[in-house]
Amino acid sequence: MIKNWKKIGLLVCSTLLFTVVLAKTPKYHYVSLKTDRGDCLLRLYNETPKHRDNFVKLVKEGYYDELMFHRVIQNFMVQGGDPNSRYAAQKQALGEGGPAYKIPAEIQEGLIHKKGSIGAARDNNPAKQSSASQFYLVQGRVFTPAALDSLEEFRLNGKKLTAHQREVYTTIGGTPHLDGNYTVFGELLNGIEAIDKIAVVETDERDRPLEDIRMSMKLLTRREALNLERELEGLSPKTDFLTKVLDIFYSRYY
Fold first, then answer.
1. Rounded-to-integer distance, Cα 159 and Cα 79, Å
2. Which of 36, 189, 214, 244 is the most exposed, having the fewest neighbouring CB atoms within 10 Å of its CB?
3. What digits encode the pLDDT tens for the residues 110-134?
4. What is the DSSP letter of 220?
């Protein structure tokens, strides 16, 4: 009898170990972004791993909590991530703060500045390295084909947009003149209305909102991300007892 129980115990342990080893990992990292004008959900791109991993690290540390959107331009973008904004006085100039390091550029031709994209802010360094913390969310606008023709001729110095860019910018909209110059590393899955609400607030001569608009962020856990991906595929989230027990053996994040 004792030998049988030992065998059962070994079988259970082996099964659990095998399950943990083969634990399913979410396809992407997701970040919940809460603002004073509404909430958003971000999906980070795997094609830009340096930016993704840095952003995940800062979010997990609570770096962005209580920071402001310090630069807002309607029909263009809303920008935040300056740590100096957490305790900034009224009318204080912002936009220079952040960690001492930069992120190497990961500019990808197919990752463009469509409405709802998140991009990394930067200074005028020739390597186009990104700020380690400052980011912007694209609002932009919808363009007519004629407006894109004009953009190509006068702002892009004759460089032609791809068919994909033209389709996106004449339907979803965005800021095409930023393509190729800044790293886009994710996009909103929902909550674009919050960006539209932030973009229309009254600002001062430095484009800082007259009323402080703050943010907080949370990285979705492994289970939250898996259930989100199931829902996006039209499946029900897994919340059964066995799933909860097995999740005890997995890392909270991934």
1. 27
2. 244
3. 999 999 999 999 999 999 999 999 9
4. P
Q: Does the pLDDT at position 20 exceed 50?
A: no
- The contacts of residue 68 (CB under 8 Å, 6+ apart) are 80, 82, 85, 86, 88, 94, 209, 212, 213, 214, 215
Say how far apart CA 78 and CA 198 lie, in whole Å: 7
Residues 6+ apart with CB under 8 A from 71: 78, 79, 80, 94, 95, 136, 206, 207, 208
Q: Give the C-alpha separation, 182 to 186, whole Å.
A: 12
Bridge partners, residue 43, by sequence: 30, 187
Query: What domains sit in the chain, N to C, each tagged with a CATH number?
Result: 3-140+175-247 (2.40.100.10), 141-174 (no CATH)
Token readout for 86 is 């957490």
Task: For residue 7, name the pLDDT band (cuts at 50, 70, 90).
Answer: low
**80 near 68, Cβ under 8 Å?**
yes
Task: Please state whether beta strands 184-190 and 38-44 pair in parallel, antiparallel, or not at all (unpaired).
Answer: antiparallel
Identity at 224, one-letter amino acid code: E
Token pair belonging to 53: 């991993």
Grouping H, G, I as helix, E, B as strand and the rest as coil, residue 87 is coil
Q: What is the pLDDT of residue 23?
A: 61
